[in-house]
Amino acid sequence: MRPPARVRPSLERGLPYSTHPGATRLLHRMQRCGTGDWNGHFTCRTPGCDECRGRYIGKQRRAALARFADASNDDLAMVTIVVGATGWIDEVADLVTAFRKDLRNVVDGLRRSHRRWRSVEFLMWLETDAFASEDYVLLGSDKQAQLGPMAPLILNPRAPVWIVTFHGIVRLNGLEPQQIRQELERKWGGAKRVDVAPFAPEKTERANLGDIINYALKHQCRTHLGAAEERWPDEWIAEYFAFLHEWSRGFQKLKVSVGRQRMCGVGIEADGGLGVVVHDQLVDSEHDVDELDVDPLPFSCSFSVFDNYYY
Fold it and tell me: Number of H helices and number of E strands within the chain?
């Protein structure tokens, strides 16, 4: 994968002219990153900052390695879901919120009818693509197929079209990738909107997890037009990251997590005391609730290039 271009230079050019209400606040916060505030340890913790995003990728990598430490390549797969598209940046938040709820509902429904799904889990991150409406005919065939019937409803000549996608990891728990895909397609139907691909067998689990996390959080800010590609205009980059910083409060809403469920036997004896197990109750695992990705103060500054792996 090509190393992602740095985002910050585009933001520094585009934010002063952006009409987004959060643009000025984001610019000021990024300008303080790595400066003398907090005794030189202030970090802006915004997705538009290349250094802070690098630290976030490293944190997500370490957490994923711990979470899936007991899994082999055969137990895991990469999952991609194209959630939807919109011509209005604020509607990205609505699409993400709906996806978070829908994924939980889909998994909960399957767990009620299929016991094997009770140990299936998802860990996914937001990626947003964008293209100009007049460039729709130049998009690759796969991207046109993914948009399908959504495209005529969202084309807006005054603004870019934002495509909301989630990439991540699914624990299969003995199911085949095709079985997972078929169940997800019942909710997110349409050509090529859902993909579930096995881990590369020639790589270690650690390498596969790192590749997927880097891919999901790459933020390349490029539009692929068939065999060609274009960098987003500075004003698109400024609008997107100003929105993302205000809505996501840093990195807090970029991740969707559905953990495994464990069985807990409970029951009531005839005299009212706890005793003989009469039924099983599903109890959420520690991964079901998304944690807030907030680091304790003081923060340590690092100026590593963010597309590398972090440990």
Answer: 10, 9
